[in-house]
Amino acid sequence: MTRVLGVGLLTGWGAGVAALPEDARQAAGARRVVPLATPPLAGERFRRATRECLLGVAAVEAALRESGLSRAAVAGPRTALVYVTAAAYAASNKGFIEGAGTTLHFPYTAPSAVPAEVAIEYGLTGGYVILVGGATAAVDALWQAGTLLAAGRADTALVLAVETFEECADLWARGRWATPRPLVEAAACAVLIGGGDDTGYGPGAASTLEALVARRAGETLACGPLVGLALARAAGAPSARLSGCWRGRRAQIAVAT
Amino acid sequence: MRPDLGRTSPTFGRTSAVAVVAAGVATPLGLDLVTFWSALCTGVDGISAIERFRVDDLRVGRGGEIKKLRTLRHGRLPRCRASALLLLAADDLLTRAALTADPARVAVVVGTALGGVEEGERALGERGARAAAAGLYDSPAHALAERLAARGPVLTVSTACASGATAMGVGADLLAARAADLVVAGGYDVLCRFVMRGFDALRSLTRESVRPFDRRRSGLLLGEGAALVLMARDADAPRMRLGRLLGHASSSDGSHVAAPDPQGRGLEHAVRGALAAAGVGGDAVDFVSAHGTGTPLNDRIETAVLRRVLGPRAGAVPVNSIKGALGHTMGAAATLEAIMCLLASRDGVVPGTAGYEEPDPACELDVRGAARAARPRVSLSTSLGFGGCNAALLLEGVS
Fold first, then answer.
1. Binary contact (A120, B173; C-beta < 8 A)
2. What is the DSSP annotation of chain A?
3. B142 is catalytic
4. B205-248, pLDDT tens digit by residue?
């Protein structure tokens, strides 16, 4: 079973699980989107980076801190990066379509821009997979990371999820049948190491953690299972069954916390 | 003596070989596999003036556009062009193979650089939930799964222009993990105003012909298409098949959001990873389907990587790029190229590199403009994309 060294979590409620309210729906009130502030990352290199890129970098920083790992420990070809999102390309796409985009902006419309900025920042050059979808895709991402570890294709894997909604709030409101309110922006990263391939990956019913995540964090799409992982670790559980549902498909996986 | 295809590597880890049972395509060169392959081998030009959307304000208005979609054998084509191309490729695939597994054990893994972005653009000017949902990048994959009645995992991969290769790799991993018994994997992308505006602004598009590895190469042209393969575990697959995916690997450059690593270190890592996953060395490679976009930088970098990996044999291993014939089909490109590799093995013909006429001393590889007789057993296919994405596939054909 894949083992978690640490989870970095940033949500519209604040940093870490301690910031999550008991009832996200009540805490959100009339807000359709609970936004996450842009992290104050300094430096010339980030001057073109989008908000979602900066959130990705900040989530990895938090995950390394939680794991007690230095940047040097993950730099190089033996760390895999698996990125997942359902929505974090929409803002840059909308900006480009509406004419705000410049030549330099276009590459940032690709979902791959977020993990690219992360890979550059931390010197990650190992296995690289980017999945698009909601909570189910995050379970798929955890499985993919476990596969890379179990096959000896990586020593460490980062599973990163970023979701932003504010810039396209009206589109999400139109698609609210797919995403019950409140939509809560989030960025989360889990640092994983290998431990066998008994992951229990496959279809499965909703876990108790999934319901807890929905109640406490709100709808965070692909970040949901990683929020669940953070909650399980905070509760001291030795392992967690993570599940997710997106567009009618449900998946689950077991992870040693 | 041929290299042993069973060695292991302690450095990269092994992957399990999977069978590629059949393929289906929708491309500017033809809306079925037979027409596509025939056009590639005979040098048909799939590049034309773009007619489907406005290009008069762009520097370049040509590309590999599919002029007319055919009807499906069953059902109607969806409004979303990306989904329509995927369903056409699936329609073609299903003329050659059936999905014989329990639907809950059939997975769909497709790669895309753009997803449903054209629908997303439309959604900004329309009302209603349907348009908004169709604009999500994973919508076409779900449309495909629904049409195939596949109820297993449905994954959308978006490693930019390497997506089609990454998707095949993830599909192989699903089979190896027994998370599915059959996988329909591949890639797609549409030629739309969004992407034409972007590449035009980057000045990546050429006003001339696309000339991969040629001394006069000056840029790429975009194309559209979809390509799918049906994959199964080697032991479970029928004897009649196109070949096997022996190994695959991906990597990140970690150097730039839009440009490849100048030394090609990420691509080299992916290629060596795919070789190691298959348990072979560079000496096993009989043919290389290069990413070969026709930009000055890409082709020079790829050449350097291939020369490092293939060693002294680099100048003698046939290399081609099919992007001169149909443009860079982005998410579809790598799967189309993988299929081409397997068909080359089957038929003993390696398609030429359209546009290649004058050798470039900086690209000293065995590239030819015309098709040639050769029957590669093991082929290497390389792919790169925005975001420092690299992927490599090692394929074994059936002669």
1. no
2. --EEEEEEEEETTEESGGG--S-HHHHHTT-SEE--PPP---SGGGSS--HHHHHHHHHHHHHHHHHT--HHHH-BTTEEEEEEESSTTHHHHHHHHTT---TTTGGGGSTTHHHHHHHHHHTB-S-EEEEESSHHHHHHHHHHHHHHHHTTS-SEEEEEEEE--GGGHHHHHHTTTTSPSPEE-EEEEEEEE---S----B--PPPHHHHHHHHHH-B-GGGHHHHHHHHHHHTT-SEEEEEEEETTEEEEEEEE-
3. no
4. 999 999 999 999 999 999 999 999 999 999 999 888 999 999 99
